[in-house]
Design brief:
391 residues, mainly alpha, 2 strands
Length: 391
């Protein structure tokens, strides 16, 4: 077993093993500590002794014994669970049973805020270290560690291992992907570790729920969007808008997979917001772009899932089919919405449409305003560049 394959296997098995221990024993922090010790033992022993016949069962057994040792050191709580764990032979856990999904749902516990759900999912299911999660949130590790600990304690205090619903899980995965694809702050436009993790976890949900149209829709949306990642930035890190991207750099295999997923989902499942967004993303990677079809899909999306970001994107489609003034009129409805009034994207889109309408002075003011409001350095540079008068 080489180092890379071993690390990949341990990363894949870690949330499954943690899910087993939580199902048997409860106690998030205690179970996580036991799993970490088992992973360390595996990383030390497997390269020397070879891979066991059932790596997952080996980890479950070792982690259970570590958990037992911990319980013994604290006055031997739960005597019956200890006996069962000690007597359980390696291989007793069914290799076909995967607790990753159960753990993912637990991390989306309704008692947690969305930010805590995202952080705990990245830590417990994604396998990111606390330092890596802290970097994803652009906060010090000393800030993130207590936040994750409080999330675990909140689940423990809720008395039952209640799980969040599928909608909550999909929303958390959507948030993780979006933050990775367009980082809200910092020097880089992308955080590949977040987009990759969101796709990996969404694939796991899709394997468990292959008939759910919205799960397929979210996975399709991620794949179709991530397919353009390599073409979104210049060698110096500068942002390249969609219309200026080199399409030869798009990942055709991801486009084909995403298109197939959303086409099948929309043909057999009740229509949902993620399917509609994926269908729009599929139209954006076609040439020429069918803006009228995109506009129609946004009309449907606004009815199913009204929110200001949908209206913002709908305004662009309206501008491309009905003229920039019609798009600007639709944007005006967002000026009094507190969710978008100070959001940089509202002013960036308004500036773009004003440019198309020939109102370059107003466009320049809005580009500069948008640049001041965003904390993403690549977006700041792009918006300031757009505000410069032509030579």
């Amino acid at each position: 077993m080489n180092d890379t394959s071993g690390e990949d296997l341990l990363r894949e098995l870690a949330p499954q093993v943690l899910g087993v221990l939580l199902r048997r024993h409860g106690g998030f922090e205690e179970c996580e500590d036991a799993v970490q010790e088992a992973l360390l033992a595996a990383a030390t022993q497997w390269p020397v002794e070879g891979l066991p016949d059932s790596p997952k069962a080996w980890l479950v057994t070792v982690a259970s014994r570590r958990f037992v040792d911990h319980v013994r050191s604290e006055q031997a709580r739960r005597r019956r669970e200890i006996t069962a764990a000690e007597l359980e032979p390696i291989g007793a856990e069914s290799p076909a049973h995967d607790d990753t999904l159960a753990l993912l749902f637990l991390c989306c516990h309704p008692a947690l805020t969305p930010a805590s759900q995202v952080a705990l999912t990245l830590r417990a299911v994604g396998g990111l270290t606390t330092a890596e999660v802290a970097r994803a949130f652009m906060v010090p590790e000393a800030t993130m560690a207590p936040r994750i600990s409080r999330a675990k304690q909140k689940i423990k205090a809720a008395a039952t291992l209640e799980r969040g619903g599928l909608d909550a899980v999909l929303h958390v995965l959507y948030l993780i992907f979006n933050e990775g694809y367009t980082a809200s702050s910092g020097p880089d436009l992308h955080r590949a570790e977040l987009t990759d993790e969101a796709i990996r976890l969404t694939r796991a949900v899709h394997r468990a729920r292959p008939g759910d149209g919205e799960v397929a829709g979210l996975l399709a949306l991620m794949l179709l969007t991530d397919a353009r990642r390599a073409a979104r930035t210049a060698p110096d890190g500068a942002l390249i808008p969609l219309e200026d991207q080199d399409r030869d750099r798009w990942d055709r295999s991801l486009i084909d997979e995403g298109t197939d997923l959303v086409t099948e989902a929309m043909s057999r499942s009740p229509l949902g917001p993620y399917q509609l967004q994926a269908a729009i993303a599929a139209l954006h990677v076609q040439s020429p772009t069918d803006w009228e079809q995109i506009r129609i899909l946004y009309v449907v999306l606004r009815r199913l899932s009204p929110n200001p970001m949908v209206t913002l994107n709908h305004a662009v489609a309206v501008a491309m089919t009905r003229g920039p003034r019609a798009g600007l009129d639709l944007l005006a409805s967002l000026d009094t919405d507190p969710r978008t009034a100070r959001h940089h994207r509202l002013h960036a889109v308004r500036a773009h449409l004003q440019d198309l309408a020939g109102d370059h002075a107003a466009a320049r003011e809005n580009y500069l305003l948008a640049a001041r409001l965003t904390t993403s350095l690549p977006e700041q540079r792009y918006l300031r560049e757009r505000a410069r008068p032509p030579d």
